[in-house]
Write a structure and sequence with these properties.
The chain has 296 residues and is mainly alpha-helical. The protein has a domain of 88 residues. It contains 17 helices and four strands. The strands form two sheets. A two-stranded antiparallel sheet has the order 1-4. Strands 2-3 form a two-stranded antiparallel sheet. Strand 2 and strand 3 form a beta hairpin. The C terminus is likely disordered.
Length: 296
Amino acid sequence: WNSVIEKCEKKLAKWKSQYLSKGGRLTLINSVLDALPTYMMSLFPIPPGRNFLWQGNKEKKSFHLVKWEEVMTSKENGGLGIKNLKLQSKALSMMWLWKYANNNQMLWREVIGAKYEKEDNWITKEVTTPYGVSLWRSIRSLWNEVKSNSKAKVMDGNKTTCWKDIWHEKGNMEDLFPDIYNLIMFQQSTIADLWSPQGWNFIFRRNLNDWEIVRVAEFLNTVNTFTGLQPGDDKLWWTGDDKGVFKVNKSYKLMDQTDSAQVGLGSKYGRAESLTKSPILSGQWLRKQSLHRTML
């Protein structure tokens, strides 16, 4: 990141902070952040910094007026909307996991899969070795967040496991029917392994007891809502998008909403969106928040 940091330091030179208002600094910061190379951010964590916003002149010492988390909070949630580089880098890295899960023919996917082996049909095993794998290890560590916001769209059924993946509208079958799961053989079987036009083919470990038959019937009624296999590869469906496609900006907003606290702008300045058009109000907001904390 050294070359990128040097360019940012030139654009955010210290002398500029001495002559720009805080509203002007916010505008310049957002402009510089929008120009950052997204490809590098998708692979390597970016070192954050916040000095430029708070720098004063040589005669006057500057202070951090409010928590940085509030400055990074979206305008809709009452902040100033400076991009959270940690979340942006995270969302870009998650895009690689989405591509790995959904693009079977990519050469880089075959290389990664051969090196780290498959955990299931969607992703490699978690990387645990301490050397030589820092790039994929950091990306792979985000898989649980990708999977928790996705569901499987079943096509030919060859990638989606019946019990482990979320393919039914009610949720994961292992979680919905843990008692039946413990009775079933071949728990890693895919939909294609178990389903045919004639029905499902579940094999139990033993004969069922009378009280278990009711639960099995409930389970079968649930899975029988499946309408059948179709041509094409199974896909991960991103639940944060109407079309099921992973998008970095929507992923960022989803994580930002989760991480951000409602900090409030006050009725004096009207709607939060007005800050976009008025850097002056942004500077006034910072001073107001600082004075409010001082009085408290």
